[in-house]
Amino acid sequence: MSIRDAFLGFVEMNERAWGQDSYPGRPTLQQILDTRIVVFWRSTKHKDPAYRVTVHEKLTEVHDYAAQMLLHSKTRLPDRRLAKVYVDRRLLVIKGVKVVFELED
Length: 105
Known about the structure:
The protein is an alpha+beta fold. The protein contains 3 helices and 4 strands. The model has no long low-confidence stretch (mean pLDDT 85). It has one domain.
C-alpha cells in the first residue's frame, strides 16, 4: 500500500464514520485533500464515533496547541488529544518532546 493510499484510506474511513453529521470547524473533503497538514484528533470527553479533523498551513499551529495542553492542563483540561498528523499525506511520527526551562527574573 502506498503512502497516498494509506492517507486516503484513513480519510475515507473517517468520512464514512461521520456521514452527514458535522461538528464545528469540520473541513470539507476537498479541504482535507488540498491542505498540506491534516490532523486527526480524539475527544477526551466523549466517545465520538470518529476522529475530528483539522487542517493547517503550518506545523507551528499544532505545536502551539500541544504546548498549551502541557503548560495549562492543570487549569484547563484538554478537550482533545492528537491522534494522527499527516504532512503532505505522509504520517508524521512524534520522535520526542523537549521542555526548555528558564530562570524567572
